């Protein structure tokens, strides 16, 4: 049993719908708080109920506008620590700045580490996140991190909606391990896209490693930002003889002209999750299907609160 007080779930403005859905699975009410902004744009936050000795979970993905939602999270963490909450867990389904996880060019920051420091310093006792862009980001924290994967939700969908003659495709070498796991669970073939990124948000597909001719291809990735990489991989697969192309990714960032690019791409269907609220334009795109990760996060929150193992959710 939990050594902390009662379970309480609160939300910022980043994805309130997800927080409410999590509360529905946990059979609890969403915590009462003021989450407004002053006229100058500063975040106006106040907890409207007693949280002394409570086990608090703050649901707040740091999705666009990233800086605003990150600042909301930091302010909320500070408020709960100053209100004598026993333990505060930052539930961050999407971790912003995750792509800045290494110094791969001269004179650049490692912003993912900086954000980890800010979250810890603001008062988080624990972090619950999902499909980090780079797994080593867990090591940037000096507090416990529970790193979940959307794979069980995604794989369950494709086990029900079977694609015959399936080949799972990694869009780059970094995604090979993820694609291999999907291929194993779906009894599918595996292919890899050899991709070179000249600069941020600009990728050039070089060639496909593996035979995809006459196959139905499923591109698996952790996120989609501008959609440029995904659409180029889909085009390369079609040129290599693929019959149909589907895609799935956990985080639908979909910035800039991403929705337009995906709408005009060779991809027949896109499956994603609700770690980030879909932009209005994306909601109108019929080829996008959203799966909920609320049950998975709710189970993890319940396990953390009750001090039971979360490892069964990692597969």
From TrEMBL:
CDD domains linked: PRTases_typeI (cd06223)
Entry's cofactor comment: Binds 2 Mg(2+) ions per subunit.
Binding residues annotated for Mg(2+), in chain numbering: 133, 172
Keywords, ordered alphabetically: ATP-binding, Cytoplasm, Kinase, Magnesium, Metal-binding, Nucleotide biosynthesis, Nucleotide-binding, Transferase
Pathway participation: Metabolic intermediate biosynthesis; 5-phospho-alpha-D-ribose 1-diphosphate biosynthesis; 5-phospho-alpha-D-ribose 1-diphosphate from D-ribose 5-phosphate (route I): step 1/1
Entry's EC annotation: 2.7.6.1
Tree of life domain: Bacteria
Top-level EC class as recorded in UniProt: transferase
GO biological process: 5-phosphoribose 1-diphosphate biosynthetic process; purine nucleotide biosynthetic process; ribonucleoside monophosphate biosynthetic process
UniProt GO MF annotations: ATP binding; kinase activity; magnesium ion binding; ribose phosphate diphosphokinase activity
Residues forming the catalytic site: 195
Catalysed reaction equations from the record: D-ribose 5-phosphate + ATP = 5-phospho-alpha-D-ribose 1-diphosphate + AMP + H(+)
Binding residues annotated for ATP, in chain numbering: 40-42
Record-level GO cellular component terms: cytoplasm; ribose phosphate diphosphokinase complex
Residues noted as binding D-ribose 5-phosphate in the record, renumbered to the chain: 197, 221, 225-229
Subcellular location field: Cytoplasm
Residues of the Ribose-phosphate pyrophosphokinase N-terminal domain: 7-123
Required cofactor names: Mg(2+)
Stated family: Belongs to the ribose-phosphate pyrophosphokinase family. Class I subfamily.
Function: Involved in the biosynthesis of the central metabolite phospho-alpha-D-ribosyl-1-pyrophosphate (PRPP) via the transfer of pyrophosphoryl group from ATP to 1-hydroxyl of ribose-5-phosphate (Rib-5-P).
Protein name according to UniProt: Ribose-phosphate pyrophosphokinase
Organism: Pyrinomonas methylaliphatogenes
Organism ancestry: Bacteria, Pseudomonadati, Acidobacteriota, Blastocatellia, Blastocatellales
């Amino acid at each position: 049993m939990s050594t902390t007080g009662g379970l309480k779930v609160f939300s910022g403005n980043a994805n309130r719908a997800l927080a409410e859905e999590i509360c529905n699975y946990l059979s609890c009410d969403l915590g009462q708080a003021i989450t407004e902004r002053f006229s100058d744009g500063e975040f106006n936050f106040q907890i409207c109920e007693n949280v002394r000795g409570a086990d608090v979970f703050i649901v707040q993905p740091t999705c666009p506008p990233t800086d605003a939602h990150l600042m909301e999270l930091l302010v909320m963490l500070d408020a709960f620590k100053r209100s004598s909450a026993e333990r505060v867990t930052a539930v961050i389904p999407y971790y912003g700045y995750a792509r800045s996880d290494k110094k791969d060019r001269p004179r650049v920051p490692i912003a993912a580490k900086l954000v980890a420091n800010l979250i810890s310093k603001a008062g988080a006792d624990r972090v619950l996140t999902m499909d980090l862009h780079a797994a080593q980001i867990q090591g940037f924290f000096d507090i416990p991190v529970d790193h979940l994967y959307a794979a069980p939700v995604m794989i369950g969908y494709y086990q029900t909606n079977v694609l015959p003659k399936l080949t799972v495709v990694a869009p780059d070498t970094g995604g090979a391990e993820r694609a291999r796991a999907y291929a194993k669970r779906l009894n599918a073939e595996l292919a890899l896209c050899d991709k070179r990124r000249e600069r941020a948000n600009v990728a050039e597909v070089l060639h496909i490693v593996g035979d995809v001719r006459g196959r139905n291809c499923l591109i698996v990735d952790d996120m989609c930002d501008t959609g440029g990489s995904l659409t180029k991989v889909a085009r390369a697969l079609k040129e290599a003889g693929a019959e149909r192309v589907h895609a799935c990714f956990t985080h639908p960032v979909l910035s800039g002209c991403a929705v337009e690019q995906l709408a005009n791409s060779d991809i027949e269907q896109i499956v994603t999750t609700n770690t980030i609220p879909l932009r209005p334009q994306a909601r109108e795109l019929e080829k996008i299907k959203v799966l909920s990760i609320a049950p998975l996060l709710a189970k993890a929150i319940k396990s953390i609160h009750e001090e039971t193992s979360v490892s069964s959710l990692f597969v």
